[in-house]
Design a protein that fits this description.
With about 110 residues, the chain is an alpha+beta fold. Helices cover about 35% and strands about 10% of the residues.
Length: about 110
């Protein structure tokens, strides 16, 4: 993917995700993926349990519509290595969704 500008399709999906999160969708925010083993476990679940299912992807990924602080470190999407700034997008293949800069997920990486 490229860090092109956000498309109308991305904007619409981002708004839909925002509505789902704001409506109280309970996601697996904790534990955070702090080790390679934890990352691999979550990514494996995303591949097997959430393929093609946006809600399951958000739940397993632990998405929030606000920044999470873990171990005294803020973890917003905008500081994650998978975040495309101009597109406002998470390019982690197992997530692959438009996001807001202040959102967070438990696969956050620097």
């Amino acid at each position: 993917m490229t860090d092109r500008a956000s498309s109308p399709e991305d904007d619409a999906l981002r708004a839909r995700i925002g509505d789902m999160l704001a409506s109280g969708l309970e996601t697996e925010v904790w534990p955070r993926a702090e080790t390679s083993e934890m990352v691999n476990q979550i990514v494996g679940r995303l591949r097997t349990e959430a393929a093609g299912d946006l809600e399951k992807k958000l739940v397993i990924g632990g998405f929030t519509d606000h920044t999470i602080t873990a171990e005294d470190m803020e973890q917003p999407c905008e500081t994650c290595m998978y975040y495309l700034i101009h597109r406002k997008y998470c390019e982690l293949p197992e997530l692959d969704v438009p996001v807001e800069p202040h959102w967070s997920c438990r696969l956050w990486r620097i």
